[in-house]
Amino acid sequence: MSARKQARNPGGRPRDSRVDDAIASAVRELLTEVGYTRLTMAEVAARAGVGKAAIYRRHATKQEMIFEVLLPDQFLAVAPDCGSLRADLAAVLAEIADTMASPPQGTVPGLLADVHADPALRDRFNEKYLGVQRRTLTEILDRATARGELTTRPDPATLNALLVGPVFAWLFLLTESPDGLPALTSALLDATLALTGPV
Amino acid sequence: MSARKQARNPGGRPRDSRVDDAIASAVRELLTEVGYTRLTMAEVAARAGVGKAAIYRRHATKQEMIFEVLLPDQFLAVAPDCGSLRADLAAVLAEIADTMASPPQGTVPGLLADVHADPALRDRFNEKYLGVQRRTLTEILDRATARGELTTRPDPATLNALLVGPVFAWLFLLTESPDGLPALTSALLDATLALTGPV
Amino acid sequence: MSARKQARNPGGRPRDSRVDDAIASAVRELLTEVGYTRLTMAEVAARAGVGKAAIYRRHATKQEMIFEVLLPDQFLAVAPDCGSLRADLAAVLAEIADTMASPPQGTVPGLLADVHADPALRDRFNEKYLGVQRRTLTEILDRATARGELTTRPDPATLNALLVGPVFAWLFLLTESPDGLPALTSALLDATLALTGPV
Amino acid sequence: MSARKQARNPGGRPRDSRVDDAIASAVRELLTEVGYTRLTMAEVAARAGVGKAAIYRRHATKQEMIFEVLLPDQFLAVAPDCGSLRADLAAVLAEIADTMASPPQGTVPGLLADVHADPALRDRFNEKYLGVQRRTLTEILDRATARGELTTRPDPATLNALLVGPVFAWLFLLTESPDGLPALTSALLDATLALTGPV
DNA sequence: ATCTAAGCGAGACGGTACGTCTTGTCTTAGG
DNA sequence: CCTAAGACAAGACGTACCGTCTCGCTTAGAT
């Protein structure tokens, strides 16, 4: 995922993957210890035992670094296929909720703000996060349609907002505990499925 | 709204209310022109024709300044009473959506990030924004219960997340156009009301 | 001498002269302790108990800062008038030699290199150092001419090079001790005066 | 000149002399184009079509590299013997002046500054440049003494400063044109010889 | 005909300084 | 006590450069 400018020419010393790991670990530690805003590049470098240049060789800005470190490479890599629309949606929602709830306090809101401030980061966010979500939801709807589970086929963007929004709001607007997420997502699936109409 | 530290001593020169207005206007202009992150106090002061001290006398930090300038004083001042649960929720949701959609690009996510970073701002946010929302929703539920519209009385926090979350996600995660909000909120109300059970 | 951008408008907090002094002292200390090359702005700021911005408000670059701190404000302010050409030249030469020998090891060569690398610094150097020297020498020659001490009037630039060059070479090319300067300047004056011809 | 660490073991690939030449050419080009300070090792390597390691295999530091590239191998290899003290001094002075005036703008002052900052470079400078000068001057004085041209035998260091200093000052303090050097050196010899006394 | 030590170009590495920027506080002179 | 202007301490940012190290490969001389 990282590796922004891969060497075209195979000559030259190759990137040291231990440096990637050290950076990622330092970022995660510091996010936990000091939070998104107070994380500094100098401290990441020091903590990782790495020069700042090694970081900037991999990540264009502090924001992209954090995004790239936190977003799992395998995020929604395969669309779940559990046999029913509800089960598929539940699986997707669980993975999304997990990705939101895992990073340390304040990281997700901080990142979202920077996504809105930095066009380059926005592009990466759209590509690596939103696009994957939309493709996965579309695939799930395709399968449900094939199964005859849907009377009306909802708009994927609307469905996306209806599913992800409450989880985000629960965690980052209301700042409620992640422990309440299961109950929330259960109600959320009931409500959403009411829209698609029972067969 | 403003006036964080009211003069204890009535003696001395009174605050100039034109300064308050000039600051508010400058903040709104700059949010539109350069966005939340690139707005600086020095530029607000220059644009408003005001000293930085005059700003800090009114607002403790940059973040509180923006929050106080943007949040309408009358936000959800009176709970709507339109005769039905759906109409009441629609009215509340419309006002909330409007408050979210009005500020310039990136302002709401920026503010939300700072709410997570700054405990003092979080207190103000809880008091002036979240608390009002929850109180209003509770009152609406009370009325609906009295009318006999509810078979099960939902948890206010869950309801809050179900209603506000999708609007937030639509605007700030998916970055879809505010034009799509009416369709979204309509579906949203349908789905949410399906939970409360038809009478 | 310092004060690069003087406030046009008298409004605003005035510069704190203690900051000027603290910077100058820190620069002198650090030049002595670590030398020209290893002096860093961050350390100057720390040593002076001052923010870096306070330094850059006064001095455009590290090089100009050192130049402005080291060059005495009164350098050759008044041309000596001792009654004879030789005495006048001796006085000027002593002051120039003193200005060269005073700064800590390596400072003068370092500064001279930067003068050749930075046009802005070169302008300041020409104005504050060379110009003053040439004007002073010209004035001394004028007086000697009026006294009838000169058979041929030497070119001021040549005279300048003949006088200052050996001192510079003694200190910075040969790296001989400043203790040898009196003997050198004495021989130097004899040689130079031989050119102008005895009356 | 080059070859700082000669291979002890004759095994292994020998140095490629074309690499030496390519480095020297690149250094000279870049000194002319960007000057001493802005010359970087990476750019020298790129220009020479050479790896940085190949440079550092030959030269310990950037400063030594430049010094070694610029100082002629044959600098003052043989003391001139022109039949008179003045002619000998003129020949030495011309060669020294030429060595100073040849390198691109700013190179000599830059190098001199680094000589004062780096003890290792200073040693090389003393050995390859100053020592040669002093030995040559001493030899010339010996011959002049044998010829009976000297009434008083001047101190070699003083003579060195008196001769070389004005040339240095002319070029690097006053930044006058090298075209003026012949006139300067002529006056300089007159003045200096006046000290040694006519026979 | 290997073997092997050292050369080679490319470029990543740790470290460190630079000059810019912003925040929230403080200091003027004046209303 | 307010105001406008702007200096202040602190410290993060992203860039640049140095001198070292690592990669895969080439090039001789010694066996």
UniProtKB/TrEMBL annotation, chains A, B, C, D:
Q: Which SUPFAM superfamilies match?
A: Homeodomain-like (SSF46689), Tetracyclin repressor-like, C-terminal domain (SSF48498)
Keyword Zinc-finger in annotation: no
Q: Which UniProt keywords apply?
A: DNA-binding, Transcription, Transcription regulation
Q: Where does the HTH tetR-type domain lie?
A: 17-77
Among Pfam families, the record links this protein to:
TetR_C_11 (PF16859), TetR_N (PF00440)
InterPro entries, per this entry? Homeodomain-like_sf, HTH-type_TetR-like_transc_reg, HTH_TetR, Tet_transcr_reg_TetR-rel_C_sf, TetR_C
Q: What is this protein called?
A: TetR/AcrR family transcriptional regulator
What species is this protein from? Streptomyces coffeae
